[in-house]
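re: ur question from yesterday

yeah so i grabbed the chain u mentioned. its 209 aa long if i counted rite. heres the sequnce exactly as i have it in my notes:
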Amino acid sequence: MGTASYKLLKVVGGRLRYADVTASSEFGGGCSISVSPTAFAWLKSAYGPDAEWPECDAHRAAAVAGAEFALRHVADRDGIPEARVVIDRIHTAPADTVPDDVAYAAVFAVWQALGVEGSQLPALTGKRTKPGASPDPFRPFAFSPAWRSPTVLALASQMYESRDFGAMPILADALQDAGCDRAYVLDHCRSPGPHVGGCWVVDLVLGKE
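ran it thru and got these structure tokens back, copy pasting raw so excuse formatting
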């Protein structure tokens, strides 16, 4: 069984992105992902036994999504058996954390808990980096300019300005019509979310990262 923590701390477009996730893994017994009931124990210690931010449920879901991504990434690698993964801790900051930040940190925490090493692991921990300075598991490709059709740009701009992301499934259709064939991009847009400011697909469409 391995345990690892990953801290995302970087500045993107003048905004701090922060999330700190701890994950543990145990090989054998099939593949599963769960979130510990004490994942937000630090919050209760700081603010009282009933403390729970409205964002906690979204951050739990994001951590699971990140863990799923991490497991899919290594599923076909030799020497990586099926594993049970537990998200032990999710540390966030209200002003600096969106669900995608938690998912990002969860990916690398799970990889390290599984013992995955090498070029997949960018040196972000404890550092502020410039946009594009390190690879991002949710951005492992060059976003084609051809995908920025007038409809795609209009939808992304509208959601970015209004902070109403209800049109994300429509954005997926528009991206697909424009030639985007990246399943994880389209699946993200069509997922129930929540989608909030800082959504990496919208940022990519608008060239903000």
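noticed a couple things. The longest strand covers residues 15-27. also Residues 119-140 have pLDDT under 50 and may be disordered.
anyway ttyl
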